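On clarity, I found the account of how folds are encoded harder to follow than it need be. For illustration, here is how one protein appears when written out as sequence plus structure tokens:

:::
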Amino acid sequence: MYAKKEEYLEGKFKIPFNLKNLEKNQKQHVKFAWERCKRYGLKPYDNIITFKYTGQELEKVLEDSKNLIESSKHFMENLYSLVKGTGFVIILTNEKGCLLEVIGDTKPLEELSRKLGTSIGTVWDEKYVGNTAITTSIIEGEPTQLSSGEHYLACLDGFFCSSAPIRQNGKIIGALNVMGYEDNSHAHTLAMVAAVTKSIESYMEINKANDELIIKNKYQNAIVECISDGFLTIDNHGRLTFINGVGADILGIDRE
């Protein structure tokens, strides 16, 4: 298989056997990824030498992605509850492929840990681990699923992965990936991952809107409290909804 990849990259034939069943655009994604891996100097049978953030660098990475991590945890746990015990690993990364959160079944998690490293801070960048659905989805900006033979490096033989980018304000800030044994691969997995990433994006957008509303209300309240006259508002049912300190003193009521 891997000799054929080398021949393909050297232009000796057009489409490797393991790309024949892919959609046209997906073939291009894999082709481009393989070519990038070759430019990085990787060979299909290479052992992986990973890069990992530690210490203060890792602290900064996690702090920069704090909102993404906190927004994604619940969705990752819910997703894992659906696939637990079936040989899957769920991974959250930042926009550079740095692992932020990892949950999954013990067997595949231990195997991936030996091959690639799955501890927080490990970077699954193409220049280190070859192409994965994570790197491809971030680079191409769309959900991607790779089967065993579509990974450039031999160490990922037997695994498939489905990944979708996560955006905030139109910018890719990370990716969610589901990885498992090839025998458990299913086309619906990619749709499931894409749906979860959309939920994460919506959740972050709602939180952002709520935070902005809280700040706006605090700003407005600060202005109203500076007014020397009494000030109050009521709703259309005649219920008091707000009163400033001066107004409360005039009416002799407790604002609480």
Notes: Residues 94 and 174 are 4 Å apart (CA to CA). The chain has one domain: 2-186. The radius of gyration is 25 Å. DSSP finds nine helices and nine strands in the chain.
